[in-house]
Design a protein that fits this description.
It contains five helices and two strands. By secondary structure, it is mainly α. It has a two-stranded antiparallel sheet. The chain is elongated.
Length: 175
Amino acid sequence: MFSYVLMSVRCVLVLVLAVSTIGKLWHRSELAEFGRTLRVGLRLPRARLVAGAWVGVEGVTAIALALPRTAAPAAVLAAGVFGCLTAGAALLVTQHRGFACTCFGSRSRLSWWTVLRNGALTAAALLLAAALTVLLGAVLIWQAGPLGVLLRQSGVRHPAGRPATPTSVLSGGRR
């Protein structure tokens, strides 16, 4: 059951990031609005460049989360992405200047609901990253014994002071 929950969280995060990326790329005016919000609301230099790079990071994160080998580091990246979005949205909402969210390629007013939604996505990404990291550690510990046996059998360890003598594949392993 736990693996189903992790997979469901991964799928939700991939879906949100993918829809956000595609929405901003499909509606170029929304990407421009995102850049304007970064420039005016958060006073970021080179906001247009940052907005374009941000969309790229969202897309790469979505793809990396979808792939099993890169899911753990991508979950950490997703936590950073959603954490920045949460903090940025909170700063913009506190300004009471009516900034828009172009989160999914459509324009809606930023509100505390946006902050709460992004906070929940941040928490989900953090929990996913923690769970995947713990699972990776558990697998490594579980495999430590067999790995040690394999290393001992391969002759990697040699008595101190005695040089290793290479064996030939042709000799059948005899020295």
